[in-house]
Amino acid sequence: MNLKTLRLLRKKLEHAVSENNIYEMEDILRYLENPKETTDEYYEQESFTGYASIDKPHLKYFKKKTLDAQLPKMKMYDYLYLRNKRNPNFIALNYYGRKITYGAMFYHIEQTAKSFLELGVREGDHVVISMPTTPESVYMLFALNRIGAVAVELDPRTVEKDVETTMLESHTKLYITMEDCSSMVDDILSNNDELDRQVEHVMFISPTESLPFGMNFLSDFKDCIERMKGTKPKVVQKEKYISWSNFIKNGRNYEGKMDTPYHENTVAEIIYSSGTTSSPKPIQYTNETFTSMVRQVELGENDYAVQDKNLDIIPLFLGFGSNNGVYTILAFGMEDILIPVPVIDGLPKLIEKFRPNHILGAPIHMNVLLNYLKDHPDRLKDLSFLKSLVSGSAHLESTKQYALDEELAKRGCKIKVGPGYGQNEAGPGLSLSTDTFLETKRPGCSGYPLIFTTMSIFDPETDEELKYGENQEGEIRYKTPCSMKGYAFQREDETSNYYRLGKDGTIWACSGDLGKIDKDGGVYITGRKTRQIGRNGFKFSPTEIEEFVLEKISAVDSCALVARKDEVEENVPILYYTLKEEEKNASSVIREEIITLCSTLKEYKIPEEYIEKDKLPLTPNLKIDFRKLEREASSKETPVLVKKMGKN
Fold first, then answer.
1. Cα–chain center distance at 505
2. Is 221 a residue whose pLDDT tops 60?
3. Where is 476: in which H helix or E strand?
4. pTM, whole model, 2 decimals?
5. Which CATH superfamily is domain 76-272 in?
6. Residue 575 forms beta bridges with which residues?
7. Exposed/middle/buried for residue 399 (C-beta within 10 Å: 0-12, 13-18, 19+)
8. From the CB of residue 496, how many other CB atoms can be counted at a distance below 10 Å?
9. Contact (CB, 8 A) for 626 and 276
10. CATH number of 533-644, picked from 2.60.40.10, 3.30.300.30, 3.40.1080.20, 3.30.200.210
């Protein structure tokens, strides 16, 4: 070991001691004990069994020294503070141009924590938060974690019946939502005596609270005019109703204990699944769900750097938004640009305005950006500032992925779209893509597993693990330190169904997704177990047909194949599709092209009906809402644009 290395180690050790960062100290200790084992060499597999659970082929993409790294054992708030306490003047949150530093953010979190305690919230309590992504939403999530309580995140668009159910099953004493939802809350509490007794306080927050001063005044003025016209609900004054400003003011009186100790596997947040193929389920995230995600991203190949800018377009009430978005971005010391309203078509303008370095989005965002760049060659000419563009939540069609790569390259962008895979129960990220990895991958690859994540394929009928690299399709199962604790609120049966004891003696999570794993550990999602269509004794995946249509007919923008029950054939497939804007004038011609193309399929795969729509319905996770389409297909009323196939 040379003198230069010793000086560097000494500097790192001094920093680790000053920060009380035991993880950095342990890394230095391992290097001193085994300097030859902590080089920058990549891991090399010495023997192969053919089973991904043992071989873990994805480890070839990680350096040897990272494989022994430790995962944090602390509350998510404490880990966030540890990583940023030396950066008080760096920008943490950007809300419509109002920039909030890390020092200010931690101050607001502390004031919010005191206010919760003054209101009677205690360790283990559930607090339901039905809010868009605003600075107050961020403060509340971390403040509740600091005092040991649990944030139950709920989509503000949730219907009254489901809000009532969440209030009841969470046993919440405090419900937090926007002023616009006040009439719904009034109805719930007025018609449910049990809930009226249970809920001690309701806090209404305006999304304008943290806007810059001039913009806040203008927004308040508009709100006042709307209320005068009767177009905006006015909050009724009740003893249990409180405002954000009074909530914070009352918290200044609190002088008791604030922080609670860390306990392993303690719930930090509850979010709801997207409900793509079943009813939404409450998912429990632990402290480890958050901290392990940050550590896994950190130990892999990434382009995150302190004070980079992230465009935050995924809502906080989704797992992808709260963990991969807000928490991971802030843990890396970046500037998080909060966008409270759902953004799809407006994405290009936001990119032009903020010039972000990183964007985490869904396939629909990638499609919007692709269409915009193709239709507006004179706009967004310079995209060289982009350092990562991640597509998660659902499968991104390969043709669109590569087309977007080409458009980005024309504009000086040196990165490619990075498809990832995960699900809310997984915390929610399981795999990621890097540019070097994508160079060698076939179309349809959704990246390789994170460093401490194990993924494999299983026969869903026999539970036998299948060999990877042999083009075998099975159910994707996984093990990850970011996994949920389980479903909340007496969902033990659903939790036990999600996990399966493997023949290796360990617990595997059953994703319900069908897929393949190649020789390098690359993951390919081919369909969904519950989305398989059975017809005349045959079974097939709708994804196969959807990909076929999108690949062969460029005029089709999106499509979804769903099943309708049939007394004779068991099920009949119905194809819903949308056309690109510039192709809508040729609607009838394109419909005939789709029908002709599908007639080349095996008979049991040919759709019975072809239905054109302006837009396909989406879940809050921005996935296609197949359940809604299935209900529509099964209803007696049939949409106008239908072409029925005769039997071959």
1. 30
2. no
3. strand 474-479
4. 0.82
5. ANL, N-terminal domain (3.40.50.12780)
6. 561, 610
7. middle
8. 11
9. yes
10. 3.30.300.30
